[in-house]
Amino acid sequence: RAMPPETPQRGLQMPHLYRLLRPEFVRNYAAPLCSDAFSSFIKGHDDAERHNAECRDATNHLLKVVIPSFAPKLEKQLRQYKSAHDGSIAGFKVVEAVHRRGINVRHLGVVRYHVHERNKDLRALLLLEMVARVVKNDINHLLREKMRALKVPLEEPYRRAVITYFNRLLAANEASFNFWNHSLKRKLLRKFNLAIAFKEWAQEDLKWQLTTFEDSRIDGILLLFERVSELTGLKFSPATMAEFRHTPNAWLGRGDEPLGDTD
Question: What's the pLDDT tens digit per position in 112-166?
């Protein structure tokens, strides 16, 4: 690895090997940092604690200085994008903007924490990106477990498993509500610190929070569906995608199983 690590988080196994500071941040940071900090490679060296302390200071600087100062700049970027695109938020690249500033995707919850509550579009976009990544991990885990159980290269069982998962995600029923507000919400907070505020956790439906855009015509669930498809590489039929894009909340009319084998 070439990049120095963040301060290791308790409960994670050897996080200094994979929770690294981004090169954009390291390049702009005031002091040089050691990529072997917190590792056994420098254990016992005279300057080991200095290297570790420098990476702790850098992590604190990222979380307490860089991200809080970046949040209003990201709000401004979205305003400028909407102004240049007739008010549309489609195509605004949240992840690219965050990465350019040297902020890791795992800190999107901290970014959202510092975005003003009145900026509904940006808060919803950040939440959508975090949920999409939790869903991506869920699907990848589901497929790995299915492959381990079946040990066969047939496509049908895996297609059916993915469809079942999406139906639980998209359907407007009690099972979907419980999935969003128990399983998905807990996974979201485990993966992204400060992903949702306490009052959002206690009072609000997580799925509903993806519909809180300033323009009520924006279908947050469609944006999530498209983003998950992009992250996972899953392909749906052109007819299904056209229906979802041109018919607002199209899955509501499809009952408890919005997706089928032909989609």
Answer: 999 999 999 999 999 999 999 999 999 999 999 988 888 777 788 889 999 999 9
Cβ neighbours of residue 197 under 8 Å, at least 6 residues apart?
A: 113
Residue 251 one-letter amino acid? W
What does the DSSP assignment read for the chain? --SPBPPPPTTSSSGGGT-B--HHHHHHSSS---TTTTSTTSTT-TTHHHHHHHHHHHHHHIIIIIHHHHHHHHHHHHHHHHHHTTT--TT--HHHHHHHTT--GGGHHHHHHTS-TT-HHHHHHHHHHHHHHHHHHHHHHHHHHHHHHH----SHHHHHHHHHHHHHHH--SHHHHHIIIIIIHHHHHHHSTTSS-HHHHHHS-HHHHTT--SSTT--HHHHHHHHHHHHHT----HHHHHHHHHSTTGGGGGTT----TT-
Bridge partner residues of 20 (DSSP): 5
pLDDT tens, position by position, 182-207: 999 999 999 999 999 888 877 778 99
End-to-end CA distance of the chain: 42
Q: How far is CA 135 from CA 12, 54, 83, 165, 185, in A?
A: 21, 35, 31, 9, 11
d(CA 220, CA 241): 15
